[in-house]
């Protein structure tokens, strides 16, 4: 009978462990003061790249037919 109960309870035991550690971290451990973040220049995204314009379908077909 224990062979059936243990595999079923394993996920719940792991979940309870994670929740307990999370509670312990929030309530028992002393709060940690964050270190001063380095001051960085504001991020400005670069201008989008201009893609070359593709020739139209008609132009490609005309060149292909004219080459015959």
Describe the overall structure:
The protein has helices at 2-27, 57-66. The N and C termini lie far apart (83 Å). The longest helix has 26 residues, at 2-27. 0% of the residues are buried. It contains two helices and no strands. It is 53% helix and 0% strand. By secondary structure, the chain is mainly alpha-helical.
- Could you say which overall geometry the principal axes of the C-alpha atoms support? flat
State the separation between the terminal residues, measured CA to CA. 83 Å
Quaternary structure classification: single chain
As a percent range, the share of strand residues is: under 5%
Which regions contain 5 or more consecutive residues with pLDDT less than 50?
none
Provide mean pLDDT, rounded.
80
Give me the number of helical elements.
2
Helix percentage range: 40-55%
Class by SSE composition: mainly alpha
Main beta-sheet annotation: none
Give the total of beta strands: 0
One letter per element, helices H and strands E, the order comes to HH
Taking all Cα atoms into account, the compactness measure Rg is 32 Å
């Amino acid at each position: 009978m224990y062979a059936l109960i243990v595999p079923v309870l394993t996920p719940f035991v792991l979940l309870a462990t994670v929740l307990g550690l999370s509670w312990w971290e929030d309530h028992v451990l002393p709060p940690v003061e964050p270190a001063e973040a380095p001051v960085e220049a504001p991020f400005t995204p670069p201008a989008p790249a201009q893609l070359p314009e593709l020739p139209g379908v008609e132009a490609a077909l005309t060149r292909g037919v004219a080459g015959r």
